[in-house]
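>> received
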Amino acid sequence: MSRIGKKPIPIPSGVQVTIDGDHVAVEGPRGSLELDVVGDVTVALDGDMLVVARADDQRSNRALHGLTRTLVNNMIVGVTEGYTKELEIVGVGYRATAQGPQRIELQLGFSHPVFVDAPQGIEFEVPVPGRISVKGFDKQLVGQVAADIRRIRKPEPYKGKGVRYAGEQVRRKAGKSAK
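>> returned
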């Protein structure tokens, strides 16, 4: 039995959960999210808790049991608290500038500035020029937007310059050795 899948999910006050067959919709103060449940996994409302169960012990259903429970839990946490991903910019002259909550300008050593527009439900914050906060209520979308920003200029292994996640360790390589 999946140890994660068998845990019930508490529904906080202010959150509405609608279950229609294999479709789960969660609505809260920050927004609304939807999920289509796949496989023989069911989501049921039990008072103020959500219970995720599987029909049998087939390998595919066992794999989807914990995944489904985690996805539904992430939806509930997202519409109540939200998610944040922090990025650091390392390099001389590398910086970010906020142009409202929906757009940032990045100077990353290219001959031109790079502009990044936030998709629906995502906001950017630039507390200092070397740090970017990506905020939103959809965990998957927050992570994808942060990964897209990081992909513009990945940290390189010789000097460590580029965009990295906060706290990410970049393994440095030795440069050329002199004769």
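>> The radius of gyration is 21 Å.
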